[in-house]
Amino acid sequence: MTARTTTRPVLVRGADVLGQGTQDVLVVDGRIAAVGSDASADAPAGTQRLSADGLVLLPGLVDLHTHLREPGREDAETVSTGSQAAAAGGFTAVFAMANTDPVTDNTEVAERVLDLGRRAGYVDVHPVGAVSKGLAGEELAEIGLMARSRARVRVFSDDGRCVHDARLMRRALEYVKAFDGVVSQHSQDPRLAGATSCCHEGELSGRLGLPGWPAVAEETIVARDVMLARHTGSRVHVAHVSTAGSVEVIRWAKGRGIDVTAEVTPHHLMLTEDLLAGYDPVYKVNPPLRPTEDAQVLQEALADGTIDVVATDHAPHVRQDKEHAFVDAAFGMLGLETALPVVSTVMVRSGRMGWADVARAMSSAPARIARLGTQGQGVVAGAPANLTLVDPDRQTTVDATLSRSLSRNNPWHGRDLVGAVHLTMLRGRVTAREGLVWGTEDVPEEEL
Ligand SMILES: NC(=O)N[C@@H](CC(=O)O)C(=O)O
Ligand SMILES: [Zn+2]
Ligand SMILES: [Zn+2]
Q1: Pick the catalytic residue: 16, 63, 313, 391?
Q2: For strand 10-17 and strand 22-28, is the pairing parallel, antiparallel, or unpaired?
Q3: N vs C: which end of the chain shows fewer Cβ within 10 Å?
Q4: Residue 184 lies in a domain
Q5: Domain containing 76: what range?
Q6: Is position 254 within any domain?
Q7: ipTM score
Q8: Which residues contact 192 (CB under 8 A, 6 or more apart)?
Q9: Could you say which residues of the chain have pLDDT below 50?
Q10: Does residue 14 belong to any structural domain of this protein?
Q11: Ligand 1 test: best mutation among 64, 67, 155, 289, most atoms within 8 Å of CB?
Q12: Is the C-beta atom of 159 inside 6 A of ligand 1?
């Protein structure tokens, strides 16, 4: 591992910590040494000063749902390029989904992804383990071995596919319970949403002549899984919730003490099915963009905590896989670099959430769900200095060509968003500033 263990001490001055008041934050040896108006009193000689007037300081963002495509599709994304996009987007940790080639269904692949992430050094890359061998939905993957490996896998998912066999799902939940793991489910009943389904089933799909995927294909699996979580006493996490009905089920389950958590993507919060009218495959995603009423319910559920987490589902695809007739194009869209600006625009500017709520949904809640331990502690003395500085008022027009990702399937291109990531710090080391990123080897000494 090449990560630096020592960095120069830094005093972040005058940042609005979680939007709850101006504080100074002292970082020494990769940890937060002090927070408060008197933090500078403890600053050792040679401390660099970083003026953060007008900026909001958040704990480093954690993405529970990222596709990095390595191994197997390094033409679409690598661990290094995806990590750079993550750092630029304010993230200090990402969970790399298992639908790679080979699939992350064993210790060897899990440790390889972990090591690639460490070598790149932009963010902590945590491999997600597959639930089933080869994502085939038949036999359990090496869940216990991955949990005990160096990668310490705690999140398991067949994402891209649904664990639709109730018996297999039950066994997976029982298995992960032993080490306090969680199963993240891609909720899509394959019998209700067929292989060719590519948009929300409703009035619009009929008009466009596209095969639809009904909301109930998601909701029946969410309902089944919360009952399996209740039965097993284990933890289930609902990936990319997209319908009002799923929110109702999750609210019901939480009200009964069932251990269920849920995530929503930035695109399901802000983009809606009417964008499909131009048949542009950049808007083709799984689950599909839904009607405005669903997006509104998702926003409310995130604000009131029924949905715990914002996760990107960053899903890079090369042009050849995306630029097809709508029905034939690959599912998925980029998300790492735009997640914070989208959440800022839809949830914060609108007054639905404060920055402390954003810190919960994009850092502490995902860290808790994945059992990241000390890394999810937040902006407090003693915690690792994983920090994200946000300029809450800066307006940007998204330019897909400036992305760190290898892919260009960016549905946000040309949109104006308010709120931008100014700087990202991983254990006291600046990994990104204003879109410029640094790995382990090439951080300019005088950067601050
Ligand atoms: N979200 C998507 O549309 N695509 C994801 C798979 C997934 O998250 O289900 C992908 O791997 O491309
Ligand atoms: Zn999925
Ligand atoms: Zn996904």
Answers
A1: 313
A2: antiparallel
A3: N
A4: yes
A5: 60-376
A6: yes
A7: 0.98
A8: 213, 214, 216, 217, 220
A9: 1-5
A10: no
A11: 67
A12: yes
